[in-house]
Amino acid sequence: MNKGKDQHVESISKIHLIIIISPTGNIQYASSSCVSILGFHKHELIDTKLEDWIHTEDLYLIESLIYQPSHQAQCFFRMKRKHQGFVWMEAILSEIQDPAQQFEKEIVLKLSQTMDIGNKSPQQSNFILKTETEENGQVNKINEIKELTDKEEGYSAFDLIEHLPNGLFLTVDGVIKYVNETGTRMLGACQKSQLLDTSVYDYIEETFHDIVKQRIRSVQQGFRVGLMEQRWYRLDGRMIEVEIISNQTMYKGQPASFVMLMDISHRKNFHKILQNSRERFRMLVQNSIDTIGVICEEKWTFINESGVKMLEVDNYGELIGKSVYQNIGKQDFQYIWKTIHAQSKGEKLPTFEQEWTTMKGHKLYTEVIGIPTTYLGKNAMQVIIRDITERKQAEAVMLQSEKLSVAGQLAAGIAHEIRNPLTAIKGFFKLLEREMDQKKEYFHIIESELSRIELILSELLLLAKPHKVRIQKVSLDTLLKDVTTLLETQAIMNNVWFEMKLDAKDPYIQCDDNQVKQVFINLIKNGIEAMSGGGNIFIETEDEGAEVIIRIRDEGPGIAEEIIARLGEPFFTTKTTGTGLGLMITFNIIKNHHGTVSVKSEVGQGSTFEVRFQKVGR
CA-to-CA distance for 267 and 53, rounded, in angstroms? Predict the structure, then answer.
């Protein structure tokens, strides 16, 4: 046997053929010896694929050793001969790298002829596998491995098994009776004797022990077992991921298992890297503050957590598979869809401003970016949606502030320009009134209109230069009673009655009582003027936590929704004789006192103004 090994080493040193291939597998050079070995001239091989000349059963070696990174530098495969059959070649691989890195690396195959299987007779065979085919023709059992010596070539075909890229083991009841060189290296042993007569359970992770026992029993009973992934431990303690397949054989008259081990640690590590990358991507998508979703065939097929919150649903099931038209207008969606699918590659994706509706009916203003994609082979669209409702509201507040600023400047100018001549007119008017008794009714009308002009000027000046605020603790009940007493005469003249229900307990607030009185005077007067045919005004107070709520409700014609949105704008009014400044001043006073105001109205049912202030201790 030692002699055979020496002859094998000697045969490896004989290089019969040299082939240089590119990283993509194209043959770039072949030595002239290819004529005597393969029967082909070298020009027939150059610029062809190496895989065209390899036996189909050995192509997996080319894939795993040449096209993919591997620690193996040696392999065996069969090459095609021109006239008949194949020839076994032993290949030693090496790489040529350009130092300047101007060209891609090249792979050099140093090939030695081992044996010719195209013309080999059974008597010349070094490696015989006897197979027993069952009646159904689908299960082959490996019975024996015999090592014979090819006297003509002086080479042991059993060495093919020794140098296969996969580990091979022969086990009896889990005890290792044979292992090839690859298996020895795979388990980190220096010599085979370190592994022989040891149990495979010493190397297999404990979690797999039960299933391995079942597989061994199944193989010994003649059943086929499938490919399985396991975790094994080397002698140095390092874990390796392996794929394992077993077949039945015999060893010294005993049922045995012929086991092939493939080290897939690199593949598993790559899968793990991919999985980690996918997980990071998933976390980025799920934790994005923007809504990220996928829409296919006008239905939601995916949405992240932010989208669930934005569209006000409790779980994904309420949205996935549902029509997107519940949340966006059909024309708006189709416009986005057509625009993004008409985009050329490389063009900047447009941003759309769209109004969306939540599943609870609330309106949202959004910025949308659409990205064309596919879902299960169908055209789809990935959307990134940013809720800009608060930004829109801030822009509206800023616009309102700008209007107020302009209105204030305008008001100050008008008031100062008109007030001085108006004072002179009123003074001379009083002097004339004493001398013209016969036309007193005209004087009354003129005086009334002058007083109205003076009131408008006072409101304009209040808008332009608010009076200094005198904050003190005030009883809200007392303040409301004072206001109703003040307006009671005007209410009776308009056939309006006050219904008061002051349920808040000791509601005290910090405020300027004159300004807050002005708030309730304006709100109640508006209610009185709204009910031309008379009616009731309900004034209510209620505690809600740290706040006190004041509701003023009338039985007037109500306010349309589009008008509610404009209440408080300067010079906007629905009255024929109004200035539009009263409600604006009212809202500003409430805001300056850190309160809030809301309006609820239904056409034909009246309106309710709800004011909230923070309470203070008595």
Answer: 27
* CA angle, 287 then 288 then 289, to 5°: 115
User: Please, where are the H alpha helices in 112-168?
Assistant: 158-162
Token digits of residue 158: 């059993």
Report the C-alpha gap between 496 and 260 in whole angstroms. 99
Contact 458, 412 (CB under 8 A): no
User: CB of 205 within 8 A of CB of 231?
Assistant: yes
pLDDT one-digit tens code per residue, 166-196: 899 999 989 999 999 889 988 999 888 999 9
* 38-88: pLDDT as tens digits: 999 999 999 998 888 888 777 766 665 665 544 446 677 788 998 878 888
Residue 611 CA to residue 596 CA, distance in Å, equals: 6
To the question of pTM greater than 0.85 for the whole model, the response is no
* Other CB atoms within 10 Å distance of the CB of residue 102: 6
Residue type, 500: M
Query: What gap in Å lies between CA 387 and CA 354, rounded to an integer?
Result: 10
Q: Checking DSSP bridges between strand 496-502 and strand 535-544, what pairing results, if any?
A: parallel
Handedness of CA 435, 439, 444, 450 (dihedral sign): negative
pLDDT of 135 reads 30
- Give residue for tokens 């069952």: 134
DSSP 271-303: HHHHHHHHHHHHHHHHT-SSEEEEEETTEEEEE
